[in-house]
Design brief:
The chain has nine helices and eleven strands. It is an alpha+beta fold.
Length: 265
C-alpha cells in the first residue's frame, strides 16, 4: 500500500516504519462517512514484521536496561515519589489534543505518515522528509540535498515550526538544518532509527538540530501514551538533558517484558 514503506534487500522484506492513517474529523473516507483514525496493516506486513522482529529486538540490548531495583526515571535522577505525583496529575486530554493538532498540521497535503517520520528543514527554506527508519547514509544524503537546495523528496505539509521549550538536541539558531521527528516510544522502527539520529547530531558539528515530537500509535501500542507522558514528566522535573537520557532508556524496553511497564517507568 502507498502508506506502508517496504524495501527489498537481499531477498528479505524489511519494514522501515509503522503506519497509522489519520482521517481528519469531518472528512469522508471513500465516501463512507466521517472517521477519525484507521490502521492499515496488510497480512503481508504482519508476516514480514514477525520475521524481522527478532533481529530488530536483538539490536536493542535485549530490552533489558534496569540497574538493580531502579526504575528508568530513577536512573536519570527522578524519584519514584515525584514521578508518581506527576503521572497522576498529568493533563492527558490536553496532551493528546496538542499531539493531534501537531500531527494533523504536519501531514497536511501529505499522503500519510507513519513512525518514525522526519521533516528536514534548511535555513534556506528547503524542506524534505524521511518516512521510516532509514539508515545513516540515506539520512545524511537527504540533509545534504536540503543544504544544496535541491531535494529528491519534497515535503509539502505544514509542520509547526520548532521553538524553544521543545525537546531539542542542538541549537535552533545556529544549525543549518533542523530535523523534526515524530516518534513513538513503543515503535521498534523508531528504536532502530534513534541511534541513527544520535549519530547525525554528533557528527554534524552543530550543523543539525533535532526536535523530538510525540506520535504515539495507541491503537497498536498499548503503552505508547503512558511512555510519552512519563517522558514529559521527566522533562518537567529534571529538564531537557534528562529527557534525552530517558528516551534512550525507553527505546531499550521496546521488547515485551514480564514486569509491567508502569513498574519500570
Amino acid at each position: 500500500m502507498e502508506n506502508e514503506k517496504i524495501e527489498i534487500v537481499s531477498d528479505k522484506v524489511e519494514i522501515i516504519n509503522e503506519n497509522i492513517e489519520i482521517i481528519m474529523p469531518g472528512k469522508k473516507d471513500n465516501n463512507e462517512g466521517p472517521s477519525n483514525q484507521k490502521i492499515t496493516t496488510p497480512m503481508a506486513i504482519i508476516i514480514a514484521g514477525a520475521l524481522i522482529m527478532g533481529g530488530i529486538l536483538l539490536t536493542n540490548s535485549g530490552g533489558k536496561v534496569a540497574t538493580g531495583d531502579k526504575t528508568l526515571s530513577e536512573q536519570v535522577g527522578v524519584s519514584k515519589e515525584k514521578m508518581t505525583v506527576c503521572m497522576e496529575g498529568f493533563d492527558k486530554t490536553a496532551f493528546e489534543g496538542k499531539i493531534q493538532a501537531s500531527v494533523e498540521s504536519a501531514m497536511k497535503n501529505e499522503e500519510g505518515m507513519g513512525t518514525p517520520f522526519s521533516i528536514i528543514i534548511g535555513k534556506n527554506g528547503v524542506k524534505s522528509k524521511i518516512n521510516g527508519a532509514y539508515p545513516y547514509e540515506e539520512v545524511k544524503k537527504t540533509i545534504d540535498e536540503v543544504v544544496a537546495g535541491k531535494v529528491t523528496t519534497e515535503y509539502t505539509g505544514d509542520v509547526p515550526p520548532a521553538e524553544a521549550g521543545e525537546h531539542i538536541l542542538g541549537n535552533l539558531d545556529t544549525a543549518q538544518v533542523v530535523i523534526i521527528e515524530y516518534s513513538d516510544f513503543e515503535c521498534p522502527y523508531c528504536a532502530r532509527y534513534h541511534p541513527t539520529m544520535k549519530k547525525i547530531i554528533s557528527e554534524s558539528n552543530g550543523g543539525v538540530a533535532w526536535v523530538y515530537r510525540h506520535f504515539p500509535l495507541t491503537q497498536i501500542h498499548q503503552n505508547a501514551m503512558e511512555r510519552a507522558i512519563a517522558s514529559e514528566c521527566v522533562a518537567q522535573i529534571k529538564g531537557n538533558d534528562a529527557f534525552w537520557k530517558y528516551a534512550d532508556l525507553l527505546f531499550n524496553i521496546v521488547a515485551p517484558e514480564e514486569e509491567p511497564v508502569d513498574a519500570q517507568l
